[in-house]
Each structure stands twice: as structure tokens, then as C-alpha cells.
Amino acid sequence: MSLILKIQFSLIILVLLACQSNNTPSYEEGIAQCWKEMVSIEDLENFIPLTPDCITGHLLPVINETSIGGTPINQEYFKGKITIMNFWFSACAPCMAEIPGFNEIKMKYGTERVNYLAIGRDAKEDIIKVLQYTPWQFDQIADADKLIKDTFKLRWGYPTTFIINEQLEIIHAFSGGSTGEDAFQRIQDQITPILDSQLKQ
Questions:
Q1: Percent helix, strand, coil in the chain (nearest 5)?
Q2: What is the pLDDT of residues 143-185, one digit of tens each?
Q3: How confident is the model at residue 18, as a pLDDT?
């Protein structure tokens, strides 16, 4: 095969690869799957999926927010990093109990390859007050009820945590927590094996 033919063949292969679409199903498809696995309390508004496992393997939905500290939280924020994303509010005792465990994880893994994002229901000024007496080393999105309900359609309760890979795929999701001394270890046991596995790749 001549050099020109080799170059042309290589270009065709590159074009074909570039044209391939991402086969990872969307977040909306994941939510639809969740509805198939739900139990009903009274009506459709109160249907609750049993666990958030049903959205693992699906793409993160598109979001465009700004953290309390002014960091843009958009698709670029997530690309090329693993992200721990936690949904919380300050009156949720298990949410608060997990914070020291999350801080320990950030201290261990640093920020070069991992993002740390908390999405809170509380108003910005209330989250700032909470962080004064309970430091939490995550980027914080405040006033996030609309984001939580309309974009994430979160119905698994609080706290809920997603782990998202570098390709913006949700690779692990879990909800619920503890108010006891085991909350610190529990959150690390849930997250560190996933991070260790991902960071080896």
C-alpha cells in the first residue's frame, strides 16, 4: 500500500471514529428506568424509586450554575476529572454527619484529578453560616431546589451522592446515611474503593 493510500485510509478511520456518537444513555433515560423500578405511595407525584442505582451508567444532565465561591459549574467543570457530587441540606442530620468523612476524602485525594461538589437546598447566606461552624471543603451550589427537582428529579431522599467519571457518566449512586459515629467511616467505605479504581485507569 502506498504512503498516500495509507494516509487516506488513516483519515477515513479517524473520521469514522469522530462521527461515532456517545452510546452512553442520557440522564432522562436513567430516570425513565427508575420509574419502572418504583413503588407508589399515593399518586404519580409521590412515586419513589427504591434506590438511585437505576441511574448508574447514564450521563450527567447538563447544568449551568455558579458556586458560592464564584466557580462556574458546567460541563467543562466535570470534563477530565472524577467528581463526587452530594445533595444535602442543613436540617438533614445524616447530611451533616457525613461532612467530616467528605473532608477526609478531599484531603487524601486532592484536587488534581477529583472534583468535590455539594448541591444544597439552603439559601446562600444560610450555607455560609453553616460552613462557619462546620467547614466543608467542597464547591457549594446554594438555593438549588429547582436544580434538584427539575434537572436531577431527585426523589431518593437526603443525603444522596453520585460519583461521576471523566466522561461525565454516573458510575455510582447511593442515598441514605447515619447520624452516628459510623457516618465518617461509612462515607469513606462507599467512595474510596470507587476513586481508587478510577484513578488507576
A1: 45, 20, 35
A2: 999 999 999 998 888 999 999 999 999 999 999 888 888 888 8
A3: 42
Dist. CA 83–CA 162, nearest whole Å: 8
Q: Quick one: pLDDT band at residue 2, thresholds 50, 70, 90?
A: low
Q: How many C-beta atoms surround the C-beta of residue 143 within 10 A?
A: 16
Give the three-state DSSP class for 133.
helix
Task: Give a three-class secondary structure readout of 183-194.
Answer: HHHHHHHHHHHH
What gap in Å lies between CA 79 and CA 73, rounded to an integer?
11
The answer to whether the CB of 148 falls within 8 A of the CB of 119 is yes
Q: What burial class does residue 190 get, using C-beta atoms within 10 Å of its C-beta: 0-12 exposed, 13-18 middle, 19+ buried?
A: middle
Going by C-alpha positions, the residue among 16, 186, 1, 201 that lies closest to residue 101 is: 186
Q: What is the helix (H) or strand (E) element at residue 75, kind and residue range?
A: helix 75-78
Contact 139, 118 (CB under 8 A): yes
Give the whole-angstrom CA distance, residue 97 versus residue 56: 25
Distance CA 177, CA 100 (A): 13
Q: What would the pLDDT profile of 14-73 be if each residue is shown by its tens digit? A: 443 444 345 889 998 888 877 765 554 444 555 555 578 889 999 999 999 999 999 999
